[in-house]
Protein backbone atom coordinates (compact mmCIF):
# COMPACT_ATOMS: atom_id res chain seq x y z
CA UNK A 1 0.00 0.00 0.00
CA UNK A 2 1.33 3.44 -0.92
CA UNK A 3 1.50 6.04 1.86
CA UNK A 4 0.87 9.69 1.23
CA UNK A 5 3.64 11.68 2.87
CA UNK A 6 2.31 15.26 2.64
CA UNK A 7 2.72 17.92 5.31
CA UNK A 8 0.94 17.52 8.63
CA UNK A 9 -0.50 20.63 10.24
CA UNK A 10 -1.37 21.28 13.87
CA UNK A 11 -4.53 23.20 12.92
CA UNK A 12 -6.42 24.77 10.00
CA UNK A 13 -4.82 28.21 10.44
CA UNK A 14 -1.42 26.61 9.91
CA UNK A 15 -2.51 25.46 6.44
CA UNK A 16 -2.79 29.08 5.27
CA UNK A 17 -0.10 29.98 2.75
CA UNK A 18 2.41 27.76 0.92
CA UNK A 19 -0.02 27.81 -2.00
CA UNK A 20 1.06 26.19 -5.27
CA UNK A 21 2.87 28.10 -8.00
CA UNK A 22 1.70 26.58 -11.28
CA UNK A 23 3.38 26.82 -14.67
CA UNK A 24 0.96 28.26 -17.25
CA UNK A 25 2.24 26.96 -20.58
CA UNK A 26 -0.99 27.30 -22.49
CA UNK A 27 -2.16 30.76 -21.38
CA UNK A 28 -0.12 32.57 -24.06
CA UNK A 29 1.41 29.72 -25.99
CA UNK A 30 2.94 31.94 -28.69
CA UNK A 31 4.71 34.24 -26.27
CA UNK A 32 8.29 33.32 -25.47
CA UNK A 33 8.02 34.03 -21.75
CA UNK A 34 7.69 31.79 -18.71
CA UNK A 35 4.41 32.37 -16.91
CA UNK A 36 3.44 31.12 -13.44
CA UNK A 37 0.24 31.51 -11.42
CA UNK A 38 0.18 31.62 -7.60
CA UNK A 39 -3.05 29.88 -6.69
CA UNK A 40 -4.34 31.60 -3.54
CA UNK A 41 -7.60 29.68 -3.95
CA UNK A 42 -5.77 26.84 -2.18
CA UNK A 43 -6.01 28.70 1.13
CA UNK A 44 -8.66 27.05 3.33
CA UNK A 45 -11.06 30.03 3.19
CA UNK A 46 -10.54 30.28 -0.56
CA UNK A 47 -8.54 33.48 -0.95
CA UNK A 48 -5.37 35.44 -0.31
CA UNK A 49 -7.22 37.27 2.48
CA UNK A 50 -6.79 34.21 4.72
CA UNK A 51 -3.17 35.32 5.01
CA UNK A 52 -4.14 38.89 5.95
CA UNK A 53 -6.76 37.76 8.47
CA UNK A 54 -4.33 35.31 10.07
CA UNK A 55 -1.64 38.00 10.38
CA UNK A 56 -3.96 40.70 11.77
CA UNK A 57 -5.66 38.41 14.30
CA UNK A 58 -2.60 36.49 15.48
CA UNK A 59 -0.59 39.74 15.82
CA UNK A 60 -3.37 41.29 17.93
CA UNK A 61 -3.56 38.16 20.12
CA UNK A 62 0.22 37.96 20.55
CA UNK A 63 0.38 41.65 21.49
CA UNK A 64 -2.37 41.45 24.09
CA UNK A 65 -4.92 43.44 22.07
CA UNK A 66 -7.30 40.50 21.65
CA UNK A 67 -8.28 37.77 24.11
CA UNK A 68 -10.38 34.63 23.97
CA UNK A 69 -14.08 35.64 23.93
CA UNK A 70 -13.48 39.20 22.63
CA UNK A 71 -15.42 40.53 19.66
CA UNK A 72 -13.81 41.47 16.36
CA UNK A 73 -15.72 44.06 14.32
CA UNK A 74 -14.92 44.71 10.67
CA UNK A 75 -16.52 46.26 7.63
CA UNK A 76 -16.06 43.91 4.69
CA UNK A 77 -18.38 41.88 2.55
CA UNK A 78 -15.92 39.77 0.70
CA UNK A 79 -12.85 37.63 1.06
CA UNK A 80 -11.48 39.49 4.09
CA UNK A 81 -14.68 38.82 6.02
CA UNK A 82 -14.47 35.11 5.24
CA UNK A 83 -10.79 34.99 6.26
CA UNK A 84 -11.67 36.73 9.53
CA UNK A 85 -14.66 34.45 10.14
CA UNK A 86 -12.41 31.41 9.86
CA UNK A 87 -9.66 32.86 12.10
CA UNK A 88 -12.14 34.17 14.72
CA UNK A 89 -13.94 30.83 14.95
CA UNK A 90 -10.64 29.01 15.39
CA UNK A 91 -9.30 31.41 18.06
CA UNK A 92 -12.55 31.57 20.05
CA UNK A 93 -13.40 35.16 19.11
CA UNK A 94 -16.79 36.60 18.19
CA UNK A 95 -17.07 38.37 14.86
CA UNK A 96 -19.47 41.07 13.70
CA UNK A 97 -19.26 41.88 10.00
CA UNK A 98 -20.78 45.16 8.86
CA UNK A 99 -22.19 44.89 5.34
CA UNK A 100 -24.50 46.88 3.05
CA UNK A 101 -27.37 45.75 0.79
CA UNK A 102 -24.98 45.15 -2.13
CA UNK A 103 -23.42 42.16 -0.33
CA UNK A 104 -23.37 38.82 -2.16
CA UNK A 105 -25.90 36.49 -0.49
CA UNK A 106 -23.67 33.46 -0.91
CA UNK A 107 -20.95 35.25 1.08
CA UNK A 108 -23.48 36.05 3.81
CA UNK A 109 -24.37 32.34 4.02
CA UNK A 110 -20.69 31.39 4.32
CA UNK A 111 -20.13 34.03 7.04
CA UNK A 112 -23.13 32.87 9.04
CA UNK A 113 -22.05 29.26 8.71
CA UNK A 114 -18.69 30.19 10.27
CA UNK A 115 -20.71 31.78 13.12
CA UNK A 116 -20.23 35.47 12.25
CA UNK A 117 -22.98 37.96 13.06
CA UNK A 118 -24.06 40.24 10.24
CA UNK A 119 -24.92 43.93 10.77
CA UNK A 120 -26.55 45.42 7.71
CA UNK A 121 -26.53 49.18 7.14
CA UNK A 122 -29.63 50.06 5.14
CA UNK A 123 -29.01 53.62 3.97
CA UNK A 124 -25.91 55.18 2.40
CA UNK A 125 -24.38 58.16 4.26
CA UNK A 126 -25.20 61.52 2.58
CA UNK A 127 -21.45 61.99 1.94
CA UNK A 128 -19.31 58.92 1.26
CA UNK A 129 -22.17 56.50 0.52
CA UNK A 130 -22.31 52.97 1.91
CA UNK A 131 -18.60 52.86 2.76
CA UNK A 132 -18.97 55.78 5.18
CA UNK A 133 -22.23 54.32 6.52
CA UNK A 134 -20.47 51.01 7.24
CA UNK A 135 -17.52 52.70 8.95
CA UNK A 136 -19.89 54.81 11.05
CA UNK A 137 -21.58 51.57 12.09
CA UNK A 138 -18.22 49.98 12.99
CA UNK A 139 -17.44 52.95 15.27
CA UNK A 140 -20.87 52.81 16.86
CA UNK A 141 -20.45 49.07 17.55
CA UNK A 142 -16.92 49.54 18.93
CA UNK A 143 -18.39 51.99 21.47
CA UNK A 144 -21.29 49.74 22.31
CA UNK A 145 -19.75 46.23 22.37
CA UNK A 146 -17.51 45.45 25.34
CA UNK A 147 -14.02 44.06 24.64
CA UNK A 148 -14.28 44.73 20.93
CA UNK A 149 -11.46 45.18 18.42
CA UNK A 150 -11.27 46.57 14.87
CA UNK A 151 -8.51 44.95 12.76
CA UNK A 152 -8.88 47.74 10.14
CA UNK A 153 -7.21 46.17 7.12
CA UNK A 154 -7.07 49.59 5.42
CA UNK A 155 -4.46 51.04 7.76
CA UNK A 156 -3.11 48.19 9.89
CA UNK A 157 0.61 47.83 9.01
CA UNK A 158 0.29 44.08 9.57
CA UNK A 159 -1.69 43.86 6.31
CA UNK A 160 1.35 44.34 4.02
CA UNK A 161 3.51 42.39 6.48
CA UNK A 162 1.33 39.32 5.75
CA UNK A 163 2.55 39.37 2.15
CA UNK A 164 6.28 39.24 2.81
CA UNK A 165 5.58 35.53 3.11
CA UNK A 166 3.51 35.49 -0.13
CA UNK A 167 6.44 36.99 -2.02
CA UNK A 168 9.00 34.84 -0.24
CA UNK A 169 7.13 31.72 -1.39
CA UNK A 170 7.08 32.91 -5.02
CA UNK A 171 10.74 34.00 -4.97
CA UNK A 172 11.93 30.78 -3.35
CA UNK A 173 9.97 28.59 -5.79
CA UNK A 174 11.75 30.38 -8.66
CA UNK A 175 15.14 30.63 -6.94
CA UNK A 176 14.84 34.42 -7.10
CA UNK A 177 14.61 34.44 -10.91
CA UNK A 178 11.48 36.51 -11.39
CA UNK A 179 11.35 39.46 -13.79
CA UNK A 180 7.72 40.59 -13.40
CA UNK A 181 5.12 40.21 -10.68
CA UNK A 182 1.49 41.04 -11.53
CA UNK A 183 -0.72 41.75 -8.49
CA UNK A 184 -4.27 43.09 -8.20
CA UNK A 185 -4.90 45.98 -5.82
CA UNK A 186 -7.50 47.09 -3.31
CA UNK A 187 -5.99 47.97 0.07
CA UNK A 188 -2.57 47.51 -1.68
CA UNK A 189 -1.51 45.23 1.18
CA UNK A 190 -0.54 42.46 -1.24
CA UNK A 191 1.25 44.83 -3.62
CA UNK A 192 3.25 46.70 -1.00
CA UNK A 193 4.06 43.61 1.08
CA UNK A 194 5.52 41.96 -2.03
CA UNK A 195 7.31 45.21 -2.95
CA UNK A 196 8.90 45.43 0.51
CA UNK A 197 10.17 41.86 0.26
CA UNK A 198 11.55 42.46 -3.25
CA UNK A 199 13.35 45.60 -2.12
CA UNK A 200 14.78 44.11 1.09
CA UNK A 201 16.07 41.08 -0.79
CA UNK A 202 17.42 43.01 -3.79
CA UNK A 203 15.39 40.95 -6.24
CA UNK A 204 15.37 42.08 -9.90
CA UNK A 205 11.56 41.82 -10.02
CA UNK A 206 9.46 44.64 -11.52
CA UNK A 207 6.02 44.99 -9.97
CA UNK A 208 2.97 45.59 -12.16
CA UNK A 209 -0.09 46.79 -10.25
CA UNK A 210 -3.41 45.68 -11.70
CA UNK A 211 -6.27 48.00 -10.77
CA UNK A 212 -9.90 48.16 -11.82
CA UNK A 213 -11.05 50.83 -14.27
CA UNK A 214 -13.19 53.11 -12.10
CA UNK A 215 -11.00 52.59 -9.00
CA UNK A 216 -9.43 55.70 -7.44
CA UNK A 217 -6.26 54.05 -6.03
CA UNK A 218 -3.94 55.53 -8.66
CA UNK A 219 -5.66 58.90 -8.90
CA UNK A 220 -8.21 58.13 -11.61
CA UNK A 221 -11.82 59.34 -11.23
CA UNK A 222 -14.28 56.98 -9.55
CA UNK A 223 -16.49 54.97 -11.91
CA UNK A 224 -18.97 52.11 -11.78
CA UNK A 225 -17.50 48.66 -11.23
CA UNK A 226 -19.55 45.47 -11.15
CA UNK A 227 -16.90 42.92 -10.25
CA UNK A 228 -15.88 42.90 -6.57
CA UNK A 229 -12.47 42.12 -5.09
CA UNK A 230 -9.91 44.44 -6.66
CA UNK A 231 -10.19 48.22 -7.03
CA UNK A 232 -11.24 50.72 -4.35
CA UNK A 233 -13.39 53.77 -3.91
CA UNK A 234 -10.83 55.42 -1.66
CA UNK A 235 -7.05 55.85 -1.80
CA UNK A 236 -4.73 53.27 -0.23
CA UNK A 237 -2.89 54.06 3.00
CA UNK A 238 -0.07 51.70 2.04
CA UNK A 239 0.72 52.63 -1.56
CA UNK A 240 4.26 53.85 -2.29
CA UNK A 241 4.07 54.58 -6.00
CA UNK A 242 7.84 54.66 -6.55
CA UNK A 243 8.09 50.95 -5.71
CA UNK A 244 5.77 50.04 -8.61
CA UNK A 245 7.02 49.83 -12.22
CA UNK A 246 3.67 50.12 -13.96
CA UNK A 247 -0.08 50.25 -13.36
CA UNK A 248 -2.60 48.67 -15.69
CA UNK A 249 -6.31 49.46 -15.40
CA UNK A 250 -8.65 46.67 -16.40
CA UNK A 251 -12.35 46.97 -17.22
CA UNK A 252 -15.03 44.53 -16.08
CA UNK A 253 -15.21 43.19 -19.67
CA UNK A 254 -11.49 42.45 -19.62
CA UNK A 255 -11.87 40.68 -16.25
CA UNK A 256 -14.48 38.36 -17.75
CA UNK A 257 -12.33 37.71 -20.83
CA UNK A 258 -9.28 37.00 -18.62
CA UNK A 259 -11.23 34.61 -16.35
CA UNK A 260 -12.60 32.68 -19.31
CA UNK A 261 -9.20 32.47 -20.94
CA UNK A 262 -7.64 31.11 -17.74
CA UNK A 263 -10.42 28.54 -17.50
CA UNK A 264 -10.37 27.47 -21.15
CA UNK A 265 -6.59 27.37 -21.62
CA UNK A 266 -5.45 26.14 -18.20
CA UNK A 267 -8.59 24.62 -16.58
CA UNK A 268 -8.21 27.03 -13.65
CA UNK A 269 -11.46 28.48 -12.23
CA UNK A 270 -10.63 31.75 -10.51
CA UNK A 271 -12.30 34.98 -9.39
CA UNK A 272 -12.56 38.37 -11.09
CA UNK A 273 -9.25 39.88 -10.06
CA UNK A 274 -7.42 36.85 -11.49
CA UNK A 275 -9.07 37.56 -14.84
CA UNK A 276 -7.90 41.16 -14.48
CA UNK A 277 -4.32 40.01 -13.91
CA UNK A 278 -4.45 37.72 -16.95
CA UNK A 279 -5.73 40.59 -19.13
CA UNK A 280 -3.04 42.88 -17.73
CA UNK A 281 -0.36 40.36 -18.69
CA UNK A 282 -1.77 40.17 -22.23
CA UNK A 283 -1.63 43.97 -22.51
CA UNK A 284 1.92 44.12 -21.18
CA UNK A 285 3.31 41.14 -23.14
CA UNK A 286 4.44 43.12 -26.23
CA UNK A 287 6.76 45.12 -23.92
CA UNK A 288 8.18 42.15 -22.01
CA UNK A 289 11.55 40.87 -23.27
CA UNK A 290 11.68 37.27 -24.52
CA UNK A 291 12.59 34.57 -22.00
CA UNK A 292 11.42 36.74 -19.08
CA UNK A 293 9.71 35.06 -16.15
CA UNK A 294 6.37 36.45 -14.98
CA UNK A 295 4.33 35.48 -11.90
CA UNK A 296 0.64 36.30 -11.57
CA UNK A 297 -1.13 36.24 -8.22
CA UNK A 298 -4.58 34.65 -8.54
CA UNK A 299 -6.36 35.90 -5.42
CA UNK A 300 -9.47 33.75 -5.09
CA UNK A 301 -11.69 30.88 -6.23
CA UNK A 302 -14.14 31.11 -9.11
CA UNK A 303 -17.07 29.38 -7.37
CA UNK A 304 -18.33 32.61 -5.80
CA UNK A 305 -18.59 34.14 -9.28
CA UNK A 306 -20.65 31.37 -10.92
CA UNK A 307 -23.75 33.58 -10.97
CA UNK A 308 -21.88 36.55 -12.42
CA UNK A 309 -18.64 36.21 -14.40
CA UNK A 310 -19.34 32.61 -15.43
CA UNK A 311 -23.06 33.18 -16.12
CA UNK A 312 -23.53 34.29 -19.73
CA UNK A 313 -26.94 35.86 -19.05
CA UNK A 314 -25.48 37.99 -16.25
CA UNK A 315 -22.57 38.99 -18.46
CA UNK A 316 -24.92 39.94 -21.33
CA UNK A 317 -27.10 42.02 -19.03
CA UNK A 318 -24.34 43.67 -17.05
CA UNK A 319 -21.27 43.87 -19.24
CA UNK A 320 -20.74 44.76 -22.85
CA UNK A 321 -18.16 42.45 -24.31
CA UNK A 322 -16.41 44.60 -26.85
CA UNK A 323 -12.72 44.00 -26.50
CA UNK A 324 -10.85 41.08 -27.99
CA UNK A 325 -7.41 40.45 -26.57
CA UNK A 326 -4.94 38.68 -28.77
CA UNK A 327 -1.70 37.06 -27.67
C1 LIG B 1 -10.30 38.84 -5.15
C2 LIG B 1 -9.38 39.92 -4.66
N1 LIG B 1 -8.36 40.29 -5.44
C3 LIG B 1 -7.52 41.27 -5.07
C4 LIG B 1 -7.66 41.93 -3.86
C5 LIG B 1 -6.70 43.03 -3.50
O1 LIG B 1 -5.91 42.73 -2.39
P1 LIG B 1 -5.28 43.87 -1.46
O2 LIG B 1 -6.36 44.35 -0.53
O3 LIG B 1 -4.17 43.18 -0.73
O4 LIG B 1 -4.78 44.98 -2.33
C6 LIG B 1 -8.71 41.57 -3.04
C7 LIG B 1 -8.94 42.25 -1.77
O5 LIG B 1 -9.92 42.07 -1.11
C8 LIG B 1 -9.59 40.53 -3.44
O6 LIG B 1 -10.64 40.15 -2.66
Describe the overall structure.
With 327 residues, the protein is α/β, with parallel strands linked by helices. The chain folds into two domains: 13-42 and 163-317, Rossmann fold; 49-149, Rossmann fold (3-Layer(aba) Sandwich), CATH 3.40.50. The chain has nine helices and ten strands. The chain has a six-stranded mixed sheet with strand order 1-2-10-7-8-9, with helices on both faces. The protein has a four-stranded parallel sheet with strand order 5-4-3-6, with helices on both faces. α6 (189-200) links the parallel β7 (180-184) and β8. The longest helix has 16 residues, at 129-144. The radius of gyration is 19 Å and the shape is globular. The mean pLDDT is 94. It binds pyridoxal-5'-phosphate. Residues 47, 49, 78-80, 184-191, 229-230, 271, 273, 299-300 line the site of pyridoxal-5'-phosphate.
Amino acid sequence: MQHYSGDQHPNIIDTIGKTPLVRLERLCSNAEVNIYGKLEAFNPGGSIKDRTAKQLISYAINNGKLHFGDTVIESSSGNMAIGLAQACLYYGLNLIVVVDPLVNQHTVKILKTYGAKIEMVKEPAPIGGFLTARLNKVNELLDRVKNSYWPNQYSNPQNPVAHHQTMREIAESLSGNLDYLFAATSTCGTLMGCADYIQKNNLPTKIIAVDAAGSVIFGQPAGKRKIPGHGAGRPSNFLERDKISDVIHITDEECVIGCKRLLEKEAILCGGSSGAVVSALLKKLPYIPKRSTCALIFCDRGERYLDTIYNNDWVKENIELEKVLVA
